[in-house]
Design goal:
Blueprint lengths: L5 E5 L5 E2 L15 E5 L5 H5 L23 E2 L4 H7 L3 E2 L3 E6 L5 H14 L4 E5 L4 H10 L8 E4 L3 H9 L6 E5 L16 H18 L2 E6 L12 H5 L2 E6 L6 E9 L7 E7 L2 E4 L4 H4 L10 E8 L2 E13 L8 E4 L3 H15 L6 E7 L11 H13 L7 E3 L2 E2 L5 E2 L4 H10 L4 E5 L9 E5 L2 H11 L1
Parallel strand pairs: 6-10, 6-11, 7-8, 7-9, 9-10, 17-18, 19-22, 22-23
Antiparallel strand pairs: 1-2, 1-3, 4-5, 11-12, 12-13, 13-14, 15-16, 16-18, 20-21
Helix pairs in contact: 9-10, 10-12
Length: about 450
């Protein structure tokens, strides 16, 4: 192998010399010559150039009038919402989630409904036998769905079979970590095998116009196993979230070349598989007949969908000398520490001798910064034991100065709250009001504390 050649280049004028010198001979500058490694020159690279010898590709204009690929509905409205409106022909979708969360069940339901609607669907399982998939389909009520089914792990065998027939509208690979390409050495699931198998399957989908759905395993950290480049290769990445102790499941889009990101689809696990939830707010709101201190409803925004969740706070006073705890479920613990610091520094409230517990009801994970005001209201309500009316929602971002800043899509949040029967809203003073709901503008966090103190 050729060794890289070194040369010395003046950083002032760019003159090159074979050896180092204190002064450049061209510009007479001192101490500007530094060593650089030149490109490796081999006999092949010296005789060949990539500027010629290739196949000329055709370039088209962006404004050309061509037929764009159409979307096809999966028959599941919540899945279509997460995909941005349905499956695009020739697209590649990667769906990941914890074991037993319902990935295979959801895809089998989508495959069965599309097949019953007249579409050609192929389901390739690398983890289960064909009879096991049939048993699940019978439990889901899809035993009569004309889905082409096979149990295989060889990418060459799969592509050879598909090339000999008309391309299906949907191809499901469950899962990509079980696929094996004989062009490379290594066991299935290794980085090189996952990358090679995904590349061949995606290339086939692009050339044939088949919508490809890959199921991906996840690590203990919740990330899709295998090379990170796998998420760059596909067009859409979906994560199936949820706790086994909870009934609901959330399908979240974190990447989508054909739609918006952070869209969610909400499902509930039932006896007959996954059921769509048309009104997700009903899952995350508790039925309270009387107001309870420390409970505030927050209209979160997941993509383009507003979802009302209940923020619950509990403040427990400790005897002097005890070390207080801070426990958070469903929200950022660093964000909670910031809100507590602002309440102490700007509002004069003391949480240093109190244990603070914060929970998002229903197990939903909230990352919207607009939850700051709802969290602060819940903390102040729990500390002062002042209940907030059950028909009130709160949202707004809190700055370190104690100012309550406006957030996006305030009208959409208020419309959802009004639709579910809420009559009042604590919101930033700069936000516009919405018909059907009484808006209470809050300019600073101190104004919120004074308002709750007056109620007490």
């Amino acid at each position: 192998m050729a060794r890289p050649a070194s040369r010395y280049v003046c950083q002032s004028c760019g003159a090159a010399s074979p050896r180092w010198a204190g002064q450049c001979g061209d510009c007479n500058a001192w101490n500007t010559i530094q060593q650089e490694t030149a490109a490796v020159v081999t006999p092949f690279s010296a005789k060949h150039s990539l500027n010629s010898g290739g196949r000329s590709i055709g370039l088209s204009r962006l404004d050309d009038d061509v037929a764009l690929p159409e979307r096809r509905s999966t028959g599941i409205a919540e899945l279509d919402r997460a995909l941005g409106g349905g499956l695009v022909a020739g697209s590649a979708v990667l769906i990941g989630g914890d074991p037993g969360i319902g990935k295979s069940t959801l895809l089998l339901q989508a495959a069965g409904r599309m097949a019953l609607d007249g579409a050609r669907v192929a389901y390739i399982s690398g983890e289960e036998a064909a009879d096991q998939v049939r048993l699940r389909a019978r439990r889901l009520g899809l035993a009569k769905a004309p889905v082409a089914l096979a149990a295989a792990t060889s990418v060459r065998d799969i592509l050879t079979t598909l090339s000999g027939t008309a391309p299906p509208a949907l191809l499901i690979i469950d899962s990509i970590q079980t696929m094996h390409s004989d062009t490379l050495e290594g066991a299935p699931g290794t980085v090189s095998q996952v990358r090679a198998a995904a590349h061949e399957l995606i290339r086939h989908a692009k050339t044939s116009g088949t919508a490809l759905v890959l199921v991906g395993h996840v690590t203990k950290d919740g990330q899709i196993a295998g090379p990170r480049v796998l998420e760059h290769m596909v067009d859409t990445v979906l994560y199936f979230e949820g706790e086994r102790s909870h009934q609901y499941r959330i399908l979240r889009a974190v990447k989508n070349r054909f739609g918006g990101t952070d869209e969610i689809g909400v499902f509930a696990m039932g006896a007959d598989g996954l059921e769509e939830v048309a009104n997700p707010s009903s899952l995350f709101l508790t039925d309270r007949e009387t107001a309870v201190s420390g409970a505030v409803v927050f209209p979160a925004l997941e993509g383009t969908r507003p979802v009302l969740v209940e923020i619950q706070a509990l403040v427990v006073r400790l005897p002097s000398g005890a070390t207080p705890r801070r426990a958070v479920v469903g929200w950022d613990s660093a964000r909670l520490a910031m809100i507590l610091a602002v309440l102490e520094a700007r509002c004069g409230l003391s949480f240093s001798a109190c244990e603070v517990y914060l929970n998002v009801a229903g197990g939903l994970r909230v990352s919207d910064p607009a939850a700051d005001l709802a969290v602060a209201a819940a903390l102040v309500s729990a500390l002062t034991e002042t209940p907030i009316p059950t028909d009130t929602v709160a949202f707004g971002e809190i700055a370190l100065s104690g100012e309550v800043r406006s957030v996006g899509h305030a009208g959409l949040r208020l419309k959802e709250a009004a639709k579910l029967g809420f009559g009042a809203a604590l919101l930033p003073a700069t936000s516009a009001a919405t018909a059907g709901i009484r808006s209470v503008g809050v300019a600073t966090l101190g104004a919120l504390v004074d308002r709750l103190a007056a109620r007490a």
